[in-house]
Amino acid sequence: MFVGLAAASPTFQPPLFDLEHRVIIKPRPGLSNKAVQATGVQVQDLRSKPPAAAGTLASGVDPLLLRHLEPGASMEQTLLELNSSDDVEWAVEDHIILPARVPNDPLYQKQWAMQRVGAEAAWDFSVGGLLPPAGKVRQPPPAAPPPPSSSASRNSSKIVVCIIDSGVDYQHPQLASTMAAGWGWNALDPSQPPMDVLGHGTHVAGVIAAATNDRGQVAGLTWGPAAGSAVSLLACKFMTDQGFGYTSGAVACFDYCLASGADVISASWSAGTAPNLLLEEAVGKAEAAGVLVVVAAGNQGFNLAEIATYPAAYGLNHPLVLTVGASGVQDEWVEYASWDAVAVHISAPGTTILSTWPGGFVEYSSGTSMAVPFVSGAAALLLAASGRRMSALQVKQVLLETAEQLETHQGRCSSGVGGAL
Length: 421
Hints:
This protein has about 425 residues and is of the alpha/beta class. It has helices at about 35-40, 75-85, 110-115, 120-125, 200-210, 245-260, 275-290, 370-385, 390-400; strands at about 20, 20-25, 45, 65-70, 90-95, 95-100, 135, 160-165, 180-185, 230-235, 245, 265, 270, 290-295, 320-325, 345-350, 355, 360-365, 405, 420.
């Protein structure tokens, strides 16, 4: 049966705040509801429709169970014991995911000391006041995905970019007409729409498809609906308004995007350095469906050949993953962007990017997060121009082959001497 949780010091303790630690469990095939209930372990079935009560399995599905660790429980010991159980096929940590951004302060790039002391890597674990300073921050497990958006389908004339992020302000004057009907899905609370409070997802959305040539504040790469754009956006919200999410939520969003007929998935975040079985499985499903997945290289400044982060490093063995680094105003490779001549494919502008912000505003933001939507938008434009006759792999190849070759990018990304969109 599922073994108990051993008490010990946590293996990972972010500073300043204490995010909940969770484990995703795949029980062995055929394990009965009674067997699960007999363990006394309170779990949530992540694949039941509608979501099952804690401690139960839905019939006729391949279940995944979410287990919340008690305070003081050791993740390492928990995984060791679960994976040693005859009733468990595998158990993995439900990794914490954070957006791949850096401060929008105009002179930040001149603050060499911040980069010298590894501030960006630290911000991947804590940004102080952005998250509650004390107490347990609990995020509910994602619910089962709803029916696909009726307007977002590969049978539709529009190319669909699905943004897996903190949601989108679908009421923003420059985004409202760009969104697919229904706006998308909120994996945190399906009873609520995928409204963005954090700002990250809205900023990404504006780079891709803010309404353009409409006397608004900013322009989007795909021009926007004022001229009858062939691109629409779906938002899948898995990050909280405080700025974090979990693998289980991101994977649920992948399922939603694929069920809704997305042509491109845009993922401006990092799940850290630990191998992530479920996330890679979700990427593999997208690849099998012929969907291009555009991901951020990350802001730690790592050489990904030495320190792999995910999903960035999936580009090494998944042909439909396109990993994006960041360039600066002078076409320089920015110091915070992770790099590798093979794992990172292309760069795009990522410094002081002006785009849409919740509440009808616009705002500057920086990071490989902001570079990703330029590539997602360019991919959508290529698909639209070809009338969907190009495959995702062909789109990726065209982007890499036509990227401008920059000497400053040599050895930093794989497209020739160094590609910049």
